[in-house]
Structure formats: C-alpha cells, structure tokens
Amino acid sequence: MDKLHEECGVFGIYDAQISNLSNQVYFGLVALQHRGQESAGIAIHSGKAINYHKGMGLVQEVFDKDKLLGLDGDIAIGHVRYSTTGESHLSNAQPLVVRFRGGNIALAHNGNLINALEIRNEMEKSGTIFQTSIDSEVIANLIATEYDGDIKEAVLKAVRQVKGAYGLVIIFNDTLIGVRDPNGLRPLVLGKTRGGYVLSSETAALDVVGATFERDIQKGEIVLINQEGCHVETFDDTGRKAICAFEYVYFARPDSIMDGRNIYQTRHKAGEILAEEHPVEADIVIAVPDSGIPAAIGFAKASGIPYDVGLIKNKYMGRTFIQPDPSLRDLSVRLKLNVLRDNIRGKRLVLIDDSIVRGTTSKRIISMLREAGATEVHVRVSSPPVTHSCYFGIDTPSKRQLVGSSMSVEEISSLIGADSLGYISIDGLVEAIGKGYERLCVACFNGQYPMEVPMSGTKYVFEKM
For the chain, first and last CA: distance in Å? Predict the structure, then answer.
C-alpha cells in the first residue's frame, strides 16, 4: 500500500414518503464508494424489525435489484468499509444489527476508537458476547447495556465511555440517530428531503439523492430524527475541533463541501502554495490521477507552467489490485496507470501527487515516465511528509514503515528516482484548508494528537487481538 485509506463512509435516511428507500441508500453509498471498497451493507427499519443485507466488495457487487426490493421501510442506514490487510471478513461488515430487550439497533460507524479493547475486555468479563472483531460493536453493545427506556440517554452514556473518532448513524425502532465525536475528527452532515432527512459522511451523497444541505453536525453533537422532526443538541463541548486534514487532501470527493470548505478549491489552493514554496523550471505540470489533479491545476496556475495530461487512469478495475508477489507489483501500477507518451516525451515534468506513504508507487510511476521519454521528473506533493501513524480511522502503516518518518526529503527523492522533491509545508496546508491549527488534526504530519493516544511504537489496531 502506498496510499492512505479512509476506513469507511456512512449514510442514513428517514423519509416515509419514499417507497424505495433502499434504492436511495444504495445511490448514497455509491457516492461514498471512495471511502471504502472492501464491504458494503444496508439496514432498513420495517415495522418492528430491522432487515439488512451486507457483503464483501463494491456496492454494485453486493446489491442487485432483487436484494434491494427485499429491503423495504421508512428508515435506513448504509455503510461502505475499507479494512486493513488480513481483517477483511464478512462478519466485520456493517451496519451491525443488535437485538436486545429494548428493541433493535442497527449501527454504522466511521472512525476508530482508542480504548475499545479495554472496554471490550471488561464487558466480556461481565458476560457480554461479541460477534465481530471491530470496535464498532463495542458502541452497539454499550448502547444495549445502557438502555433503560430512553434511547438518547443510552447512546450518550455509551459514547461518553469511548475515546477516539466516530461519525455514527443508528436506527433504533422508529428513530434515526446521528452522532459526531467531541473533536469532530470524522465528518457528518445533515440534509433535507421533501419528506424527511439524510445523514451522510459527505455532501456529495446528498446531491446524488436530491437532498439539500442543511448543516454540518458539529463536534460533540447528537441528532435525533423521527415523526416529531429533527432535534440536534450538544452533548460534549470540551474537546477542541480537530477534523482530519487528510479529508481535505485526499479522502473526500472534490465535489464535497466539508465544514464549510469546498474540497476542490482547497486542493487547488494547496497546489498554488506548493508552487510558491517549491518552484522549479519545467515544461509541463502533470498529475497522478485522480486525486492529484486539482493541486496540479493550482500549481500550473501559480507557476505559469502549462498543465497537461501525462498519466491515464484505468477507471474500470473495480477494487484495488493488491498483488503480494513482488515480481508482479510493477504490473499492478501499469494496470492502474498508463503514460501518454506523446505528451511527455522529451519534456521536463512536474509530477503532482497528494501524498507519499512508502514511496514504492511513486518510484514505479517515475520509472514509467522516464521509459516514455521524460527528460526530468520533479515531484511535488500537496501534503507534508507523513511521519506518524493515525489512531482515528485511517489505515496507516506503523511509524517505522512511513518513509517520511525514517528518511529525509533528499533521501526520499533519491529512493523514488526524482530529479527533485518538494512537499507542501504544514503551514501551507493549513493555509490552504483555511481552518487554522486549532480546528484541524495534523498529527500524522507532526505527532501532535488532539488527545492522548497509545504510544507503544506501533499503530493501535483493535482488530489485531
């Protein structure tokens, strides 16, 4: 893996006027597919029961017309998931559905908890049985344990016991619930339909289902949606705002708006700042598609170097091609990307990418460009070096595997075979996002986490028990 991966995306809808609600969730999940490509699932409230279907693969692989027809009701949630290597199992797919004395809960979770293992151990000592190895089940079981007739209080008692990042959508009987963690690390937005409301990880999914954007669910807020309408309240205002900076760099769709910031414009601005911080003489600017394109256009505008297409992405590969055989890893890159030879032959290139994790993919891309006739390849990266692991829902390698942690910029440049290498500064990225340090989590760049985290030297991964 030479890219960071978001763990998942969540979607929920309450609307009694829509007869095919599961189709709406399906479309919403397709719009969020970039956030998770290992598994997908939908749960829907139908009378007294919660029906659900989930499976491994892309949304379009998991669901067909017949499966969607079998999911009927007026409240539904959905989930797409990316899991770390070795932990991709159907049992860990979401939404989780739990039946207990108070009724039925369906829960979908975006994020990662840092104290889930401790809570799970204590609950198991008390007799609680767990069916999965994911931290999300800890939240579901806490809600079931804390329930005493008031679902809002049960949810609040549950989330006050956990630490970490979470954007939650929950079905309980006739209510759709959304919760965002006290630091706002993971995103969650509220939209309005003609007959109800939508909760989503990103605004792009609202657009797909024809919902209008109402507001971001703020840090430490809970929203309850039922026949009485939509009620939002703050349950924890103690944490500082710390939305993940990588949402703006890479994870979110460029057509989404996150906490008031247009993702495309943020990436475009990052490219402009990158050009100011690391100027270079070259003939054309090209991007690693698709995530590097907005920054490349911004770099070209600020530098005066023309933007052109140098790499073509194969858009029909489906899930990420993971090939463990070292002899075939170069083939995986060539399957994803092909060089437009006539555009780059004999030219000095500025290659824009959003991040470098291990450097292996960058090295292969640069080799391909040189083979196609590029005379120089200057790499510019629209995020700072990734030097620390994430504990809050991003699949990062352990710190020792992060090339930005173990090598200097000059050493990385030599490793990947670039003529020069420049990363945007942390200050430059913060300026591009326009939020200020006090409202962002940039811990993967500087190690300054918004809360105390397990400092064991490796990434905390709940699923490896």
Answer: 22
